[in-house]
Amino acid sequence: MIYIKTPQEIEKMQQAATLASMTLGELAKWIAPGVTTNRLESIAREYIHDNGGHAACLGYGGFPAAVCWEVNETVVHGFPSNYALREGDILGTDVVVEIDGFHGDMCYTFPIGEIAPEVMDLCVTTKESLYKGIQAAREGNRIGDISNTIQTFCEAKGYSVVREMCGHGIGKHMHEDPEVPNFGRRSTGPILKNGMCIAIEPMINLGARNVVIERDGWTCRTRDRKPSAHYEHTIVINGMEPRILTTFDYIKEALQQRYI
Ligand code: MF3
Ligand code: CO
């Protein structure tokens, strides 16, 4: 069941999405070589709480953190730990904020100091594929148009698309219908209608597409242990011009010339 949101509900989604965006902007100020993801997790929790939000991932299906921490080969759903970030790492930060019963979901992958050019290119391409997918999210198009746009763009550059994890509808629940895969055929799947809210989130691998789940039951990593990048926005279908509720602007402001 796909729920179309009212303008009032979309404004609540916007509030949640803005706090999610500000949270990643705050994290951007702290993310650096030597910092542990445990430390970053406590910064995020405090920030969300102090700004009147609820960290929706914390306790979701038993997930133990406010943010999913995705270091290098971790694709999604990593736990915070005492691992200290190192120059050359990449760190995906995936956060969901709930305010007044509605959710905003986003992810950004940060380079830590100087990173290998091939890994930088993976990140740039993954972020670009997100915006290309968003441009395909027009009224009257289908989910498969978003999926195929992301897949063809990333595969043309030699990367592989994770298939086990998808984007999703979002609203009163973090995960709603429809599923938004990052691979698929054009003109297939549910038709996009104005007021539908979806989270688009390409998860793209430098090596093979295969992933495994660690024994903790959550952490998803590439089977070949090569890096994976992940960017995500929450958007609303709005005619030819999708409205992007989350933003990377706060990250850009914090990172200045280090922003990619
Ligand atoms: N942003 C993730 C997603 O899109 C959040 C899920 S993490 C969980 O699905 F722990 F909450 F499940
Ligand atoms: Co999501």
Structure description:
This protein has 260 residues and is an alpha+beta fold. The protein has helices spanning 7-30, 37-50, 117-135, 143-156, 249-255, and strands at 54-55, 67-71, 74-76, 90-99, 102-111, 160-161, 167-169, 176-180, 197-200, 203-205, 211-213, 220-222, 228-230, 233-236, 243-244. It is built from five helices and 15 strands. The strands form four sheets. It has a five-stranded antiparallel sheet. Strands 1, 2, 4 and 5 form a four-stranded antiparallel sheet that branches. The protein has a three-stranded antiparallel sheet with strand order 3-12-11, with no helix packed on it. Helix 3 (117-135) packs antiparallel against helix 4 (143-156). 2-amino-4-trifluoromethylsulfanyl-butyric acid is lined by residues 57, 60-61, 63, 68, 77, 94, 96, 105, 199, 201. Residues 105, 168, 199, 201, 232 line the site of cobalt (II) ion.
Chart the SSEs and their pairings.
Elements: H1 7-30, H2 37-50, E1 54-55, E2 67-71, E3 74-76, E4 90-99, E5 102-111, H3 117-135, H4 143-156, E6 160-161, E7 167-169, E8 176-180, E9 197-200, E10 203-205, E11 211-213, E12 220-222, E13 228-230, E14 233-236, E15 243-244, H5 249-255
Antiparallel strand pairs: 1-4, 2-4, 3-12, 4-5, 6-10, 7-8, 7-9, 9-14, 10-13, 11-12, 14-15
Helix pairs in contact: 1-2, 1-5, 3-4
Bound molecules: 2-amino-4-trifluoromethylsulfanyl-butyric acid and cobalt (II) ion.
Cobalt (II) ion is lined by residues 105, 168, 199, 201, 232.
